[in-house]
Amino acid sequence: MAADNNHLLYFIDVYFWTRALSLAGVIAGSPVAFVRITQWMNALAASGCGALLWILCRWATGSLAVGIVAAAAYAFSHAFILHATSTAEPMVGLFWSFLSVCVVVVGLATSSRVLLIAAGVLLLLAMATYESMVLIGPAELILICYWDDKRQFAQWFLAGCVLGASIGYLPAYAMSGTTSPRAILHRFFDMGGGEHVYGGFRLSKVFNLPLGFANAVAPTLPHSYGGLRWLLIKNRFEQSTLLALAAAIAMLGWIVWTLYRLVVVWSHLQHRQRLILSCCALALVFDSFPLIFWDPLYDKLWLQPIAVVILAWSVIFEVWRRHGRSRPMRLLPETLLMSIIVVTGLMGALRAHRSATPCLDGAQELAGILRPNDLLLRGWDSISLLYSSFWGHGAKTFDVPAVASSSGPRTVQLLHDEIARTRGNVYSLGILDMPENGWTPFIGDKAHLPYRSLDPIRTCAKRVASLSCSDGTETLWKLPSDCR
């Protein structure tokens, strides 16, 4: 039941959630119904995140109105509302991280060692659910150490982290066969090999950081955007791309404006307000590492830093307002930004609610073709991903890009071994007809699987069906028995 380190407890969360609902009489009767139930889990976790952020902003500023505005801005941000209504992994981990911060604050206010231990446990549960959520931890530790000189309380928080690691990781490792101390340590620090494919610090990622931030706040990037190289080589300065660039510049302008306010009101900040802002700055430093190392456009990694930015803004804005500097024209940036976030968030949610799931018909058609003994060689096309999500218990699948990212050239041998073990038919979708210029940038250059390495399969595969999708059709290929 355990996954890799990145989402170790996600499937366990889903299991207990569905079991709890079954006790109340809510049982998924189909794959689509099961996905809907999982979406409820994320929606509930998202509601908790919004409430906890309001509590934090209300406590940090002393203002009910500012807390409401901050929580609403976060709730309607593109990245948040996208994953609050999907089955993606990070939302429950995000909730545990929010709850950990709130428990730290209450534990410090009441000098409760038990609560600080509980906060450490929650932080490691957040990490075990979605790994990057632990990056708020250093900021929590600084908050504890400099909150009324309660440095001795840090040891209780760290003890809770150790306890949380034991609770969150050891049972999951044991269930998946990892039991020796050496193997446990190796697996705990293992990144799955993905850092060699997806990772790396490049200047282009730094330049994409403002674009990723703006798109996480409001959907501004076109779906076809493939990075600065894609933009410059293809010369695609289309209207939507110019809008994305303008949005990134506007967001940077708002940040600069907020920092200017911070400089102006710095002398009016209380000790704890400065401590909160220092912790926010530290959290942003740590949250920036995976964005720059992995992908600055990956919206899941923006969920925590956006909340940190909003919390810091709420403190700065409230001090600015209380000292008589909130003239109507000076509130224009927040007014415009809040309007854009709410309008685009609502429009996107309504559009998604009224629209059918793209390519779902094609995935259902594929599920009707495949049998349990069959094998599907798949890529990351829409129909393959939907089939794996909704009908993952059906035919076996061989995820070529995922295997290539960890095995490189050995993927060809692993593929032939899997084909040889298959008793049923062997199909391919989204792989054999992928153009070479689409294959090379990732599978070829980063995963080191040459395009021509699958030519023996390409030459003998037969077209058997055209599956409908939102942007056209996808071809399903079948390997004849003499080709295997």
Q: Would you count the extended β strands for me?
A: 5
**Which strand order spans the largest sheet, edge to edge or round the barrel?**
2-1-3-5-4
* SSE string, helices as H and strands as E: HHHHHHHHHHHHHHHHHEHEHHEHHEE
Describe the biggest sheet? 5 strands, mixed
User: How many alpha or pi helices?
Assistant: 22
Total domain units: 2
User: Which class do the helix and strand fractions yield?
Assistant: mainly alpha
Radius of gyration equals: 24 Å
What's the overall geometry? globular
Average pLDDT metric: 85
- Percent range for β-strand residues: 5-15%
Q: What are the segments in which pLDDT stays under 50 over at least 5 consecutive residues?
A: none
**End-to-end C-alpha gap:** 32 Å
Proportion in helices: 55-70%
Protein topology:
Layout lengths: L9 H14 L7 H31 L2 H12 L2 H7 L5 H21 L2 H17 L7 H9 L8 H15 L1 H6 L5 H9 L13 H15 L10 H7 L4 H27 L5 H23 L9 H20 L9 H23 L5 H10 L5 E4 L3 H9 L5 E4 H8 L3 H11 L4 E4 L6 H9 L10 H6 L1 E8 L2 E8 L5
Parallel strand pairs: 1-2, 1-3
Antiparallel strand pairs: 3-5, 4-5
Helix pairs in contact: 2-3, 2-4, 2-5, 2-15, 3-15, 5-6, 6-8, 7-14, 11-13, 13-15, 14-15, 17-18
